[in-house]
Specification:
Elements lengths: L1 H18 L11 H24 L2 E4 L9 H9 L1 E7 L3 E12 L5 E6 L10 E4 L3 E5 L7 H25 L4 E4 L5 H12 L9 H6 L4 E4 L7 H22 L14 H33 L4 E4 H6 L18
Antiparallel strand pairs: 1-9, 2-3, 2-6, 3-4, 4-5, 7-8
Helix pairs in contact: 2-4, 4-7, 7-8
Length: 322
């Protein structure tokens, strides 16, 4: 049993290391490697989205002895958390699933999901013996939404990379069979950024009549690549607005009115405000239910109100101590 666990661990570590191993030019266009690059691009994009999501709100969960990043991380993947009293561990906050609803379509019975050494999870809790912390008023799971954006954004990113390769203008070096070895040496030296290329006189003499000509058989256009990058940025802006973060990048190159910009910002503000209200209301209910206070702060509002230091004539900043 021990050997099998060790083998499984080694296999997992090997896959992890291989995923982050830089690819070489020889296997870049391999079909298997392409699938790996697609998967890596998707995962990196999803990681970026998760970091932004978890940075919107700052929690103080010390009253429950819980790490402060625990709440937002679990809300991202589950959409809802429950505060309840465990018969052995006391008051806990853990992910849950809804098992039953009342006539107003509100949860009346939940199942706590998790694992511990005593295997006491999952188990059911009936209303009113729990308090729910929702990510949003629609009671949806953020992961399902942002996984879709991660797939679309990463797909466009990979399309940009492929299209960018199509813009390259290769050069054909033609010569007979005896000259190919010398030509390969010259090309590898150039691609390696070497200062000198050393050849003997016979090689130089044999390659005097080698033909060098450009190869422009490509239908790719730089304007199309720019359009792909614009589409990627539009998807990113749309994703941020669904997260409650206003992003006006597209407005720099689009003919839109200030009313349209304000309307888009208002949509983002509504999403963020409603998500923040869900957390504040849950904090109030938890304080009454468990007699413990937890704090949630809106980091976007805090960061927006931070003023950069203004340098004075001497080069110092006004907010520095004299």
């Amino acid at each position: 049993m021990r050997n099998s666990n060790a083998a499984a661990t080694n296999a997992f570590n090997a896959r992890s290391l291989r995923s982050y191993t830089p690819y070489s030019s020889t296997d870049r266009h391999d079909a298997k490697r392409t699938r790996e690059l697609n998967a890596i691009s998707f995962q990196l994009t999803l990681d970026d989205i998760l970091k932004i999501y978890c940075s919107r709100f700052k929690w103080d969960l010390s009253a429950f002895n819980i790490p402060n990043n625990y709440m937002e991380y679990n809300l991202f993947f589950n959409g809802v958390m429950a505060c309840f009293e465990h018969p052995e561990y006391g008051f806990l906050i853990m992910p849950c699933t809804i098992k039953e609803y009342n006539i107003y379509n509100m949860p009346s019975k939940i199942s706590i999901t998790g694992s511990d050494a005593l295997n006491s999870f999952p188990f059911d809790v009936n209303y009113p013996n729990f308090i729910l912390i929702w990510d949003n008023p629609a009671m949806t799971t953020p992961y399902l939404t942002f996984r879709k954006y991660a797939f679309e954004i990463s797909d466009v990113s990979r399309s940009c990379e492929v299209y960018q390769n199509g813009l390259k203008k290769p050069v054909i070096l033609s010569g007979d069979f005896n000259k190919q070895s010398t030509l390969n040496h010259v090309v590898n030296s150039k691609l390696s950024n070497e200062y000198y290329t050393i050849l003997d006189n016979s090689s130089l003499k044999d390659n005097i009549d080698s033909e060098i000509k450009p190869y422009f058989n490509s239908a790719h256009k730089a304007e199309d690549l720019k359009a792909l990058y614009m589409h990627k940025q539009n998807l990113y802006d749309e994703m941020l607005r669904n997260m409650g973060i206003a992003s006006n990048t597209i407005y720099k190159s689009a003919q839109v009115t200030s009313d349209e910009v304000n309307k888009s910002d208002l949509m983002a503000d509504l999403v963020l405000a409603s998500s923040f209200e869900c957390r504040i209301e849950a904090n109030r209910q938890i304080a009454e239910f468990a007699s413990r206070n937890i704090v949630c702060e809106n980091m976007i509002e805090i960061v927006s109100n931070i003023q950069p230091p203004i340098p004075n004539i001497q080069g110092n900043t006004e907010n520095e101590d004299s």
